[in-house]
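An example makes the point: we let one protein speak, the chain in one-letter code, the fold tokenised, and here it is:
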Amino acid sequence: MKAQVLHEIQPIENRPLHYESVPDPVPSPSDVLIKIKACGACRSNLHMIEGEFQRIGLPAKLPIIPGHEIAGIVEEVGRDVKKWQMGQRVGVQVLHDACRRCEYCLTGRENLCLSRNVTGETVDGGYAELIVAPWDFIYALPDNLCFEEAAPFFCPGVTAYRAVKRAEIRPGQKVAVIGIGGVGHMSLQFAKLTGANITAVDTFEEHLKLASELGAESVVLASEFGKLADRFDVVLIHAPSQQAVDQAMKAVKRGGTVMMAVFGDVSVNFTEEHTIKGSVIGSRMDVIEALNLASQGKVKMKWQAFRLPEANDVLLKLKRGEIVGRAVLTP
């Protein structure tokens, strides 16, 4: 098969992904082989490629095929797989698998499993034509979603859904969403479903235009956010910067909640009974619940399609803030 392969950690400007032929993956008895139709391009893919995840041991191997939000068709099933059949439309999320035995797995929090595998970071991912995945960690696609729209629900969709759920937003609350990118534009929509009043914050006018189209009551450039008189019950952070965290802490009410749905080294100073929460991708049930809302048309994924050979260029556009919504690679 053809795949985009990372052999060496480098800045994306150096075009570190190599589009080349690699052996087809072979499913184990409990695996499903999937023909990939679409794979989202995530900022965390970019962070891994450029070496920002090396301090936590990622990527776990080199060479590696990145990509962790995948939609495709079942091509082959292992002999022990009972649930899936050839030709079914399925997806693979960031959480490739988990141990299934620890306290986290047994309580429906397998996204916190200490032995979890991460698609495209510890095992080969979706910047390719084929992928294998455990039968119990893949998901049926809603009939009303095309592959390109469905794929990003397996990272920004589920990540946003879990972050909003954990933030425990109530009807009528004032909520700020900082960073209207792939995850942020979904968080905005899930937060709207709670009945909250949403303010969208971003550094790019085009992203704020999207926020308005998705129903944000107000939009504001990040440079002007600190000048608002309002203080917010909940602030969701989807911009990986210390500046965004500092803005959130100034904007949240005393006793309010800040949801840190970002990855990176940031410091938080809170002295007014704030609740600081984190959120990590999502469990299998989170994926199912998010897809169910998508199947009902209650949330929409904004996406742009590119060909798989363009992966380096697409990630460079993402780094420059030139992608509105989610970029999706198609083999």
Q: What stands out?
A: The longest strand covers residues 31-41. The chain has a mean pLDDT of 96.
